[in-house]
Amino acid sequence: MNLINYLERKFYRIRFKPFYKYVVFAMGAVFILDLFVPRLNLSWRLSLIMPAVVSGEIWRLVTFLVVPPSNNPLSLFLMLYFYYFLGTALEARWGARRFFLFYAIGALGAIIGAVITGYGSNVYLNMSLFFAFALLYPDFQIMLFFILPIKMKWLALLNALFFLSSFVTSSWPNRAAILFSLANLFLFFGGDIVNKSRLQINHWKRKQQFRNTYKR
Length: 216
Known about the structure:
The protein has one domain (2-215): Rhomboid-like (Rhomboid-like fold, Up-down Bundle), CATH 1.20.1540.
């Protein structure tokens, strides 16, 4: 967190404005173009493919951020709605400058992962927004599928299990890509997670000691 505070001070003179909604709108626009003008093959042209970058298509280092996360219209609509909600909420909580740092560090991690594997994706980067929101607002309740009320911390736990499963079953290069893509979470929340885990462990130990003493 000290590093984040240092970087934020370095950018203090630069005026940042909320930007993530434009990223979401761009994803939607790319999907529409893919749907109605398929010959453009736009998503592929924007994707982070390292051999193409090395050959001179350096725009892919940025444009992969707006590649749609799904090619199913309903799924895409729900995902983009969710991304918009999470991103704008975090921008409002942190301010545009701090959110930019969070997003930029995640994007850099995704690029490093692409250097290792040859291909990069914005999936883990966008999911890091979800984890960040869940850590800040664990008891915030949403309507899953507009029907089932569920708290963010439980959804985060399910997604953490998915990430863990992907990490375990993937090759080592893909594991590295996953870790680098979540670098922003480690930098922003790593200390808090460790401290909370330590408190929980100490609480459990005290509880066990009390039970053992009571039994005697």
